[in-house]
Design brief:
The relative contact order is 0.14. The N terminus is likely disordered. By secondary structure, the protein is mainly α. 82% of the residues lie in helices and 0% in strands. Helix 4 runs antiparallel to helix 5 and helix 4 packs antiparallel against helix 7. It is built from seven helices and no strands.
Amino acid sequence: MRKSNRDTTENTDKSLRTAHPQEDTVHPTRRVPGELGIWVFVFTDLMMFSAYFGAFMYERGNNLQEFSEGRSAMRTDFGLANTFLLLTASLLIALAVSAVRDSAVRPARGLLLGAGACGVAFVVNKGFEWSAEAAVGHTPQSSIFFQMYYVLTGIHLLHVVIAMVVIILMWRLTQRLDGETDAQQLQFIENGAIFWHLTDALWIVLFTLFYLVR
């Protein structure tokens, strides 16, 4: 009788496991994208730019009229175009990383090419903007506003150029991928995406300070 009860219990347990197989499934471990080194770099870079932004706000507080005139002279259309380009590139890169994770290498290549094209357009548009400002006499010597404008957007432009080089390396890596991506290759792709998103975030702050704050 005891054996019969034990058999019945075992059969019931088996039936429950069959009805709910997901309970036995091992869920994949969640992890932070990229490597520790890239996050240390991001934190350090953000601290550096925070000091720049603090200096901007300090100078603005001491030169409200000059900064107000400088803000009024800015071409917001250039700033909006560059914001659109960087946000689009960030979206494409995020989709590319997702594609690599799913072993969809060919779509990832196309997405990275699109992001790189947005980066090139950003650099070209920034060149036109600087030329337009200089043509009407707005140079680093004009005022503290334009001095900070050229310095901060110049440092950011350097970030964009470096990020574009990284995108090229990411694209070349996807050319060599065949099938699933190993952990080291995926981390490199994620590191590149994180760096690009950093340049995007920095630009949002710069756009707000130079084009929107009154």
